Amino acid sequence: MTWRASVVTLFPEMFPGPLGQSLAGKGLRDGRWAIDTLDIRGFATDRHRTVDDTPFGGGAGMVMRPDVVDAALAAADAAGPDRPAVYLTPRGRPLDQALVRDLAAGPGVVLLCGRYEGVDQRVIEARGLMEVSIGDYVLSGGEPAALVLLDACIRLLPGVMGAAESAAEESHANGLLEYPHYTRPADWQGRAVPPVLLSGHHAEVAKWRQTEAERATRERRPDLWAKHVTHDAAPGAMDGRPAAD
Ligand SMILES: C[S@@+](CC[C@H](N)C(=O)[O-])C[C@H]1O[C@@H](n2cnc3c(N)ncnc32)[C@H](O)[C@@H]1O
Fold first, then answer.
1. Pocket of ligand 1 (CB under 6 A)
2. Which of 72, 84, 145, 220 could be 88's S-S partner, Cβ–Cβ 3.0 to 4.6 Å?
3. Given this model, what pLDDT does residue 81 score?
4. Which pLDDT belongs to residue 113?
């Protein structure tokens, strides 16, 4: 069955946007995934097609109305089989590769993109939306965040990535950052490629790559390294690599 994304947004013209290009675009044309958008404004009930209102309790900005957002989400639900519904928000759990893998393995996703100060909390609770953040910074709307989440999922769908872009070794696949890459020329501006990569010894290359992946993770992401070490030490860590989480 085709993996289907339904995006609930005030800016439907932002989709598929960059996802219409490159491998994701080819996957879309090949029917590996599909996307539809629901324009939240189309679910407003008044003459002015109002989607927001002032916050109870006062303060700056506007809040998206629960009744209008709920109607749009109901229509999105009808567009595909039982799919998880995600509200993109800086208040959410951080997006990581484990969540991306889970979402990519399912039938698809419904994505709610906020604007203004965000969405009335009651519709988030009533619909049991999963709240997901793409990082500790604030965007002006959920659309770029939805594109990020979709890109990460789509590249994992069967038939989207070519063999050359294997996901097996890349950063976060096994809890480590990836090793560095080199290509021709072997000497560039006086900088030589690490000799082991020219040696033709596959086992030595694999060992070097593992060491460099561990070094990069230890130096750049102590948080990931701590998890990696904990997993390795855990009973049942059979092959010396942590279970990706
Ligand atoms: C200006 S932001 C609202 C920020 C909100 N008032 C807060 O402080 O948490 C408008 C919308 O952008 C989206 N957004 C902003 N930053 C995001 C992030 N880091 N991850 C996911 N979505 C984000 C959300 O959909 C949000 O409702």
1. 88-91, 113-115, 117-118, 133-135, 137-142, 145
2. 145
3. 76
4. 99
